[in-house]
C-alpha cells in the first residue's frame, strides 16, 4: 500500500492540516498535525510509521513550493508512545521532551507502550504484514525540548509546556498568539489514561490545574488533541476539572494502581527485550 492510500488529510486553514492513518481503526489512532510557518514547518506527532509520512506530505503538496524555505520539516512528538512516535525515524529533524529522549534513542518498546493487534489494521500496509512484528524504531532526537522552549516557525511560535502525568515527557505546544493548544495526550475529549508505565496521577492533577489556568486566563480558544475531535475552551475546562475531582478520590487511586500493575505486566510480556 502506498503512503497516498494509507493517509488522509483535511485542511483547517491558515497553514494547518489534520492528517490521519485511514486503515488504523482503533481508539489509539493518533491525530497528526501539520503546521506551516514562513520559515519552518512542523509536524506534531507521526502515527505508527507504517507508511512514509514525509512522502505523503510531499506528494500532496502540503508544504507548497517556496524556494526560500530551506529548513527540513521538524517532527515533534508530544510524547514517546508508539501511536505518536512510530514515524519519527522518517524525519531528519526530531524533537521530544528530554525525559523521553532515551526511550526513543534506545527503541524502548516498553516505555513507548507498543501494543498493536491485527484487528486494529483494516488493510495490511504491505503483503504478509503482521502486528506482532511491529516495533517503534529507534531514533536519536535532534531537538531536546524543555519547559518554556519556543519553536520559531517565523510568522508564528509554539511554546513548549511540559505537562507530565499521562507520561513523564508529555508536552503541549501552545500557539499563544492564535490561542491554539496542541495537547497530545495530556488532554482530549475522552477518558484520560493515567495508568500506563511512567504515568503519575499527582503530576496529571498538576497538569490539569495548569490547563484550567490557561482557560481562566483566556490563553486558549481551541484545542487540537492527540485523539478524537477538536474542542474549545469551555470543554477543556470541564475535562480538566472533572479529572482533578475524580483522581483525588480513594477508589479512583486504587483502580489506577490496579490497572497500572496489569499494564506493566502485559507490556513486559509483549515486549520482553525492551529496556525497563
From TrEMBL:
It holds the Pfam family Lactamase_B. Residues 29-227 form the Metallo-beta-lactamase domain. Transmembrane segments: none annotated. PANTHER family: ACYL-COENZYME A THIOESTERASE MBLAC2 (PTHR42951:SF4), METALLO-BETA-LACTAMASE DOMAIN-CONTAINING (PTHR42951). This is Metallo-beta-lactamase domain containing 2. It comes from Acanthochromis polyacanthus (spiny chromis).
Amino acid at each position: 500500500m502506498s503512503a497516498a492510500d494509507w493517509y488522509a488529510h483535511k485542511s483547517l486553514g491558515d497553514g494547518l492540516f489534520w492528517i490521519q492513518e485511514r486503515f488504523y481503526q482503533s481508539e489509539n489512532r493518533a491525530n497528526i498535525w501539520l503546521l506551516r510557518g514562513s520559515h519552518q514547518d512542523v509536524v506534531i506527532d507521526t502515527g505508527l510509521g507504517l507508511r512514509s509520512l514525509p512522502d505523503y506530505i510531499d506528494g500532496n503538496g502540503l508544504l507548497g513550493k517556496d524556494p526560500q524555505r530551506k529548513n527540513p520539516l521538524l517532527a515533534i512528538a508530544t510524547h514517546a508512545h508508539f501511536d505518536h512516535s512510530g514515524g519519527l525515524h522518517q524525519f531528519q529533524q526530531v524533537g521530544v521532551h528530554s525525559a523521553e529522549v532515551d526511550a526513543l534513542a534506545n527503541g524502548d518498546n516498553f516505555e513507548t507502550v507498543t501494543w498493536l493487534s491485527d484487528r486494529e489494521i483494516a488493510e495490511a500496509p504491505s503483503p504478509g504484514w503482521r502486528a506482532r512484528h511491529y516495533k517503534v524504531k529507534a531514533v536519536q532526537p535532534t531537538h531536546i525540548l524543555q519547559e518554556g522552549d519556543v519553536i520559531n516557525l517565523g510568522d508564528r511560535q509554539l511554546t513548549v509546556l511540559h505537562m507530565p502525568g499521562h507520561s513523564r515527557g508529555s508536552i503541549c505546544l501552545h500557539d499563544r498568539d492564535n490561542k491554539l493548544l496542541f495537547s497530545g495526550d495530556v488532554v482530549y475529549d475522552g477518558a484520560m489514561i493515567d495508568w500506563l508505565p511512567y504515568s503519575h496521577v499527582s503530576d496529571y492533577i498538576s497538569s490539569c490545574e495548569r490547563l484550567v489556568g490557561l482557560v481562566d486566563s483566556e490563553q486558549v480558544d481551541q484545542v487540537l488533541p492527540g485523539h478524537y475531535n477538536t474542542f474549545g475552551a469551555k470543554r477543556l475546562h470541564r475535562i480538566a476539572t472533572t479529572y482533578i475531582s475524580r483522581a483525588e478520590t480513594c477508589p479512583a487511586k486504587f483502580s489506577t494502581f490496579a490497572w497500572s500493575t496489569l499494564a506493566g505486566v502485559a507490556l513486559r510480556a509483549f515486549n520482553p527485550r525492551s529496556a525497563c
